[in-house]
Design brief:
Hypothetical protein af1432; 9 helices; Phosphohydrolase; hydrolase; binds fe (ii) ion; OP_Dioxygenase; hydrolase activity
Length: 195
């Protein structure tokens, strides 16, 4: 059985406690790609009235980005851009952006976080919203990148006959990307732990 700390208030924890906890965390963090893939799979069978289920849409978006020669980081962003649909019914892009933030560039993070508003250009006018809501970001340095993501990959990925690679195609790049955080308030502690 794994060693456990014994404190009941965190303020009473000791360095030894944290050595035990840190050891467990390294193991736990290594399972992140599995948990992410398992959560993405929750979208399987979830059509929500769409022509394809949300899992297929996710895989198809990533497939389109991969076939277009995008790098691994971009393809993983495409794969996970809608992973927040299960828990973030009213703000799904924020969930994906938060999961990806430690591992991706600022421009890819911004793209994922704002894709909902940009994707709205293709349908907001049908549901009583402003399809030009994205125009508030017209002068933002990542406007074009985000508009392009929606135009080329997200927007056309509802095709029941469209190429849809299986998750196994994306698993290695997901594992590589999540092997080490680029930014995290815990990064310094993690680096010391690994040393
Ligand atoms: Fe979305
Ligand atoms: Fe999408």
């Amino acid at each position: 059985m794994a060693h456990r700390a014994t404190f009941v208030r965190m303020q009473d924890s000791t360095r030894e406690d944290w050595q035990a906890i840190s050891g467990e965390f390294v193991h736990f963090a290594g399972g992140l790609p599995e948990r992410v893939m398992a959560h993405l799979k929750l979208l399987e069978g979830d059509y929500g009235g769409f022509p394809v289920d949300r899992y297929t849409h996710s895989l198809q978006t990533a497939t389109r980005a991969l076939r277009d020669g995008r790098d691994d980081e971009y393809v993983v962003c495409a794969l996970l851009h809608d992973i927040g649909d299960t828990l973030g019914a009213f703000n799904h892009p924020d969930i994906a952006a938060a999961i990806l933030q430690p591992f991706v560039s600022e421009e890819n993070h911004w793209m994922v976080k704002h894709h909902g508003i940009f994707q709205g250009h293709y349908f907001f006018h049908h549901i009583g919203l402003d399809r030009d809501l994205r125009e508030q970001f017209r002068t933002h340095p990542h406007f074009d990148r985000t508009a392009e993501f929606c135009e080329l990959y997200d927007n056309p990925a509802f095709d029941p006959k469209g190429e849809t690679l299986p998750i196994g195609e994306f698993e290695p790049m997901l594992r590589r990307l999540m092997a080490q955080p680029r930014q995290s308030i815990y990064k310094k502690a993690l680096t010391a732990e690994a040393a």
